[in-house]
Amino acid sequence: MLEKLGVHLDPELLVLALTHRSFAHEAGGIPTNERLEFLGDTVLGLVVTEALYRRHPDQSEGDLARMRAATVSQRALAAVARNLGLGKYVLLGKGEIRTRGFEKDSILSDTVEALIGATYLSHGLETSRELVHRLVDSTLDVAAGLGAGLDWKTSLQEASAERGLGSPDYIATFEGPEHARVFHSTVVIDGVTYGSGSGTAKKHAEQGAAEETYRALLEKFPLPGADADGKAADNKSAENKPAENKQADGRSAASKAPAAGA
After folding, report:
1. CA atoms of 255 and 262, how far apart (whole Å)
2. What region holds the RNase III domain (predicted)?
3. Is 249 annotated as a binding residue?
């Protein structure tokens, strides 16, 4: 695993980074990886934010924020962990092993952040920056082209407002025991039910419901001249063109008119 990470970590620090709270509890209350996760989350956010700022000088703050959120999301980091084969190394309690905690997005993403935190403590910011880029650069590249898919909830909020509709309401339910819970979410706008979604976390269910509703709004309430993401085009430049053309025509006509007294 360390070969894939491309860094060397002190064995004691590495074990700490891999220690989930369920294992720590069963082992008599030994330290967990949660403090390292907290540190790694901050380092990850800094490196990704800097990269986005430098690579996309023309993007707005809102677009950069959505790109960052997509890159450091639980789902994205869990995918990084799976590429590393990290699940089999995480130290879990018997209960989490029984419910296949080594496959859970939440545990995998937290462990990635803990490893970044451990790298920062061992080697400082520059080595940590190199590690983060190795882990998430491919996600950064994809995020630049996701458009509305960067954050379906925010995109839905904007699409609803552009169409003069109310704010989306998310109706949440869940089923199953606490260790294997499945969440369901349904979007209601102005009393009308649109999309629904499900997932192992509430926010995943809401994102799924928001995506389905977003697509439904684009189909039901298309905007004139909308782009591929369903956003209304900026017509200001187009609105100015007729006036500019008229002025140009006026100048042209004036130049062609015979001089007075000719």
Report:
1. 14
2. 1-124
3. no
